[in-house]
Specification:
Keywords: Cell membrane, Ion transport, Manganese, Membrane, Transmembrane, Transmembrane helix, Transport. Its main location: membrane. Probably functions as a manganese efflux pump. It comes from Corticibacter populi. The chain has one domain. It has six helices and no strands. Helix 1 packs antiparallel against helix 4 and helix 3 packs antiparallel against helix 4. It is globular, with a radius of gyration of 16 Å. The chain starts with a helix and ends with a helix.
């Protein structure tokens, strides 16, 4: 793979995480750069690790992950989308990472990051059958995701300010649609 292909792959792998970051940013009462960077770092690290895991699995048995990856992504993304919508509809006031740690906790953020990185794991499986430096590809994917998620959280606040809870509900719907699209693509 040439450097442009690797960069394009990194950008493509970060789009799901960007959508989730917009939803996360829209739901935050105050968007601090430090919070956006933390969320970006969590997503970026997870997104960098999953293609390596997929590459290792692909090196051993590619059918293992390819058979079920779409179902796992679908269930996680739809579940997180429903949770996001439920939290937006049931929320009485604005929230912030420090004020409501349950909805923006490390575990919640990591699960969202994992849900949006399942496709990167599947890509890693495919890369196991090519001549590529998986460490370089994983680093580029992680860096692209870090940047896109950080920007998404910051931009989500602008969207949230303009649209309020509707933006958070839309973010939940986007997570559900992304999950459905992943499932559709694999089943068609």
């Amino acid at each position: 793979m040439n450097p442009i292909s690797i960069l394009m792959l990194g950008m493509a792998m970060s789009t799901d995480a960007f959508a989730a970051a917009l939803a996360r940013g829209a739901g935050m009462a105050r968007t601090r750069l430090s919070d956006a960077l933390k969320i970006g770092l969590i997503f970026g690290c997870i997104e960098a690790v999953t293609p390596v895991i997929g590459w290792l699995i692909g090196s051993v048995a590619s059918e293992l992950i390819e058979e079920y990856d779409h179902w796992v992504a679908f269930i996680l993304l739809v579940g997180l989308g429903i949770h996001t919508i439920y939290a937006a509809v049931g929320e009485d006031g604005d929230r912030d990472m420090s004020e409501n740690p349950g909805s923006n906790s490390l575990l919640s953020t990591a699960l969202t990051g994992l849900a949006t990185s399942i496709d990167a794991m599947a890509v890693g499986v495919g890369l196991a059958f090519t001549t590529v430096n998986i460490a370089v590809v994983a680093a580029v994917i992680g860096l692209c995701t870090f940047v896109m998620v950080t920007l998404g959280v910051l931009a989500g606040k602008v969207v949230g300010t303009v649209l309020g809870k509707r933006a958070e509900i839309a973010g939940g719907l986007i997570l559900m649609i992304v999950g459905a699209l992943i499932l559709y693509e694999h089943l068609k």
